[in-house]
Amino acid sequence: MDDIQGSVEADLPQIIAISSGKGGVGKTLLSVNLARTLSWSDKRILLVDLDLYNRGSTTLIADSPIIDQLTVAGMLESVQDKSNTRLRNEISEKEIVDVTDDSGNPIPLYLVPSTTTNTIVRWDQYSYDLSRLQKFMLRAVRELNKKYNLDCVVFDCRPGPEPLFLAAAGIATDIILVTEADIITLNGNINLYRYLADTYRNNSEVLRNVRFVINRIPKGQDIAHIERRYMRRLVDLFKTRPNLASIPFDDAIFQSFGQHRFAVDQLPNSPFSKHIACISVELFSSNHDELLSDRCRNMASTVNEPWFSAGKRALVEAFESLMKTRNER
Questions:
Q1: Which residue ranges form the domains of the chain, and what is each CATH number?
Q2: Is pTM, for the whole model, over 0.70?
Q3: Does 222 have pLDDT greater than 60?
Q4: For 121-136, b where at least 16 C-beta lie within 10 A, e where not — what string?
């Protein structure tokens, strides 16, 4: 694979790329609700559905059929245009989707759908050179930012080492890989991380942006133990940072999936919603805390399960111990 450089730029909005080693782990639900939580700050948040096949984010939150609006597939038609004219015209002539809450009220969250409604996409139409695809992604975000003055862009990517995800990762300020508490799903994420490491082998900054979320941990499991076990595996392989979050299985979220757009609005007291708020705070409390509303901070502060504080403390101690041992070697 060609060696690709990351292209994070200071004048761009914050960019989060979310993917997973396999499907069905809650990646889209996390993407949609993280974007919604950030929009509570009244900043302009753009969710981009990069999954051209499943259209998960598009299906979950689009209010009406997508016909004449800006789409990822439509923008991809301009990848080969080095002058950027076609992409600029596409963005200037078409609008992104204004998202509403479940009551129909406008909110500062916007969507670029993957495709028009009921479109069948053949991937061979979009098998572009990865370096060119990354440059296209950077140009697209820059043009969208010029038109809409965005504060944060969330990419909901297709699972696996798919070219659009690899390109988005190169311009992202944060990369989230969603896994579950089983060895198969973890191995899928480890393999995906290896693809990133191979693609950006001369740019350690991209790899430092990667964080892991362990989702839907079964009831009765020792979450602190799972975190320590997973973190040891990740540190042994990659020296990566500790997990971003560990989310217990939430039956209310499972039972209500698809019934409303945003679980964080409709089920604010659920463990899932509280942990989405925690992820937001973890990402932006040190930098760009303007993306954090009081509502988000207050929700995150209610995560007071004994395992949470004890587990996070044990996680940091284990990480420091492992890194000390590695340095001594």
A1: 14-328 (3.40.50.300)
A2: yes
A3: yes
A4: beeeebebebeebbbb
